[in-house]
Amino acid sequence: MADARSGVEIAQLVAEHHQVVYRYAYRLTGSVQDAEDLTQQVFLTAQQKLGQLRNINAAKSWLFAILRNSFVKGRQRRRPVLATDVAMDVGSVPAGSLGGDVDQERLQDALNRLPDDFRQVVLMFYFEECSYKEIAERLEMPIGTVMSRLSRAKGHLRSILFESEQNASERPDMATERG
Amino acid sequence: MRDQLDANISAAMHEVPVPEGLAERLLIGLVNNQAEATVGAKTVSRRWALAYGGLAATAAGLMVAVWLGSRPAEHVSEQCVLDEAIRSFNLGFDEPGHLLSEKPAPAEHPLSRVVLRIRGTRWRHLEGFLGHRGLVYDLPGPAGARASLYVVAQDVEGLGTAPSLRPFTTAGRCATAWSEGGLLYVLVVQGDPTIYRGYLNLPRSPVA
Hints:
The complex is a heterodimer.
Chain A: H1 4-29, H2 32-48, H3 59-75, H4 104-113, H5 116-126, H6 132-139, H7 143-165
Chain B: H1 4-13, H2 22-41, H3 46-69, H4 78-91, E1 98-99, E2 122-129, E3 132-140, E4 146-152, E5 168-170, E6 173-180, E7 183-190, H5 193-197
Antiparallel strand pairs in B: 1-2, 2-3, 3-4, 4-7, 5-6, 6-7
Helix pairs in contact in B: 2-3
């Protein structure tokens, strides 16, 4: 059994962060059951590595990093969607064209269609609200790659979301192969 | 660079309903996992393994009871609530939230009946307010003044049932807290008590 101190700390982490971790997991996986499984895996890993958490104020970022790693490990056995499989019509949608509320179903649909590595970058930008530089540092990739992926992925999101306001029949040709 | 659409998408990303009882299931999973690791590390009989399992279940129940069941009973003072709201108010926010006139706020955290309905009021979700989730209403005011109304489900001893006309003031902020419909309301206003009172929809007889 874990000692009392670690038991208390992990329970505290669960109490304070389980909702935001679950929401992030849901956006990554697109499934309620997968999101709950992934959330459980995040806290199991956190329980094992609790000693690595030096600053309780950084707990959320730390849990998010575990979440991303757990997600990637879980997907490695599956065949990924290649970036080139996804047609992203970046230039077709004006940046400010969507002024109202975002359609949740279309948002998740758009996320689900993204390749895993693109989805990861998009969620770090939109969910964690990281800057390009922070994303590059945390994923250990060149900032140019981050900018390129974000640009294409944002175009993809906008094209699907914008479509709901304009004309559903003009949907861009998206590959639907899922990992 | 983030534009308005980015802000809308960011806000929408967080709008995911969380399943009921998730925290309890996570904690039970953690305790069971720890118990399995303990049993696995030792060569014990089946009888002892079952005993460990029972112990794990009991421990899970205790952990859940201690960390989730006892939270509402935590003593939080009115001043603590005001300080937290002012701190949150001073931090500001990245996303503007939803216009109340375009998208109704969730019914479980309604706008207070004693706060004026002001055109341009927005609402957004609130995380980690003294360990609770809730809602914030951001109210525009005269000459660029602003106010925020924090709404969370939390019991605070000794609170009145309406906002005071004599708010707590500090560093250009006025704040007051009250209970209404089983919810905690905290209003923080940028400005002096006169501006503060302009946000209230009170009867003629003052509520002190």
